[in-house]
Design a protein that fits this description.
Distance between the termini: 26 Å
Low-confidence stretches: none
Mean pLDDT: 71
Strand content: under 5%
Radius of gyration: 19 Å
Number of helices: 3
Structural class: mainly alpha
Order of helices and strands: HHH
């Protein structure tokens, strides 16, 4: 049995981690700092996290076809 290299659960996990980390960072900086570049960095983390989350959900709902299913079909239409 072949091992899955890109598990959708890894995308979901890191997506949630980045989203929560970015939100926590942004909320803490909004109360203490007024420099705009310090507010942009957490926004980038949030965007990356949402992108990973969407990518993970897309892979989870539509798994890639494996070579085993292709060989079982035998090239029949």
């Amino acid at each position: 049995m072949s091992e899955k290299i890109h598990s959708p659960y890894k995308y979901l996990f890191w997506g949630v981690v980045l989203i929560l980390g970015g939100v926590a960072w942004r909320l803490s900086l909004m109360g203490w700092f007024e420099l705009s570049w310090r507010l942009v960095l957490p926004g980038i983390l949030i965007i990356l996290g949402v992108g990973l989350l969407i990518s993970g959900l897309a892979r989870w709902y539509r798994p890639a076809r494996s070579s085993e299913t292709d060989s079982q079909q035998g090239g029949q239409p």
